[in-house]
């Protein structure tokens, strides 16, 4: 039987193993940023309310959006995984108190833009993000409160660690053992912490940090006590 040899080919004429590779086939696409936007929140809404609303999901960060000194009723919530966005969207039009809440997909750029707006407003005004009447009543109670050397912090980023708080109070002498980050019932950071200073005078001096920012969040400081610290820490064990 006659076997014809194939005609010789030019070295550059052999077919490419993938003559038409699909577009972006070798480019790894990053997963979508896991953030949702909420609308219609009660005007007295706190971060704890949003954590309860999304119970069972991993909350990485919550950003309450303000207009001027008032809460706008909107917030951004960053979740632990992209898949959890779908679960968060299932809570759309569920109630928080008497209000039904709208939940939308959002984007990284919208979240970062909202952070930039919040930081800009906080740095450009004092007192930040509260009605004047409420701010005066809160400030008056803080000024008249007795200092015991313990402060309670509220509004911390959920990613905040002890070293972040040591840096926040870097002008005062603190040890790592003096910082207590409060966990919620699920064992996750609650956004609150207690700090034990060496003296009542030190804690009073530290109040100058009230409503200053840590990362993208402004932090509220309140005079507290050793009893409140022990109760809060033991309740979440």
Automatic annotation (TrEMBL):
PROSITE patterns cross-referenced by the UniProt entry: RRM
> Can you list the GO cellular component terms from the UniProt entry?
ribonucleoprotein complex
Q: Which UniProt keywords apply?
A: Repeat, Ribonucleoprotein, RNA-binding
Q: Which Gene3D superfamilies match?
A: 3.30.70.330
Q: Where is the RRM domain?
A: 149-226
Determine the domain of life of the protein's source. Eukaryota
Q: Which Pfam families match?
A: RRM_1
Stretches for region Disordered: 1-26
Which GO molecular function terms does the record list? Answer: RNA binding
Q: SUPFAM superfamilies given for it?
A: RNA-binding domain, RBD
Q: Compositional bias of type Pro residues: which residue ranges?
A: 1-12
Q: What PANTHER family does its record include?
A: HETEROGENEOUS NUCLEAR RIBONUCLEOPROTEIN-RELATED
What name appears for this protein in its UniProt entry? Answer: Heterogeneous nuclear ribonucleoprotein f
Organism, scientific name: Thalictrum thalictroides (Rue-anemone)
